[in-house]
Amino acid sequence: MPSWHNERSMSAAPIDNAIDFSTPLASTGVDLFARIDNETMEQQLLQSGVVMTTIDGVINWGRKNSIWPMAFGLACCAIEMMSMSASRFDISRFGAEVFRGSPRQSDLMFIAGRVSNKMAPVIRHLYQQMPEPKWVISMGACATSTGVFNNYALIPVNQVIPVDVFVPGCPPRPEQLIHAVMMLQEKIGNSAGATRQALNL
Ligand code: SF4
Q: Is it true that the peptide bond before 133 is cis, omega within 30 degrees of 0?
């Protein structure tokens, strides 16, 4: 036998992850069985076509996937908001493209631009006309903190109405706004008491 063969045989490392054939069901590594054992009951039922959820979960799922924003812009940020709803960025992929012309048909208000003291009561009025549940996204530095126009004429929007998500930037990119919508969807999906709220209890 050639000498190189002996050298290779002598230096061969022991196999650490050998399959344990002493278990009758062991046809491969133990990892596979660990994954099966760790599956939750919900996952196992889902594979059989059974879905388990709560009424709160169904309501939240419907709400978060059918957000209707109000067609409302205050300054240059509104251009980015419009482009978010157009074909290139396409917010309809997230179920939030149906911009409504009336606050009574809207559940999301984008504050897209500067809020002046003169406009603040109008914004609050529009917000109050929106039916519950309703959400607000503050878009851009101006809406959140008056941005570069830090003077007596402007006011941060959270001093006028409650805000759910703040988006930084001047102006924020449409992708940032989409990310804000996704964060809002997560918040809506995790909110408690949707059934009681829907039934007015
Ligand atoms: S944050 Fe920038 S883009 Fe948006 S309204 Fe202010 S100045 Fe315009």
A: yes
Closest CA to 57 of 42, 76, 77: 42
Binding pocket residue ranges, ligand 1, CB within 6 Å: 75-77, 113-114, 140-142, 147, 170-171
Q: Is residue 117 part of a domain?
A: yes
Q: If you search the block for the tokens 């992929």, which residue do you land on? A: 93
The residues with which 111 forms a beta bridge, in sequence order, are 138
Asked if residue 16 is part of any domain, the answer here is no
pLDDT in tens, 64-109: 999 999 988 999 999 999 999 999 999 999 989 899 999 999 999 9
| DSSP 8-state secondary structure symbol assigned to residue 93 | G
| Best residue among 114, 138, 154 to mutate for probing ligand 1, ranked by most atoms within 8 Å of CB | 114
Residue linked to tokens 């924020």: 172
Cα 95 from chain centroid (whole Å): 12
Does residue 49 lie in a domain region?
no
Domain range enclosing 169: 61-190
Find the CATH number of the domain harbouring 100: 3.40.50.12280
| Total count of domains within the chain | 1
Q: Per residue in 170-200, pLDDT tens?
A: 999 999 999 999 999 999 999 888 888 888 8
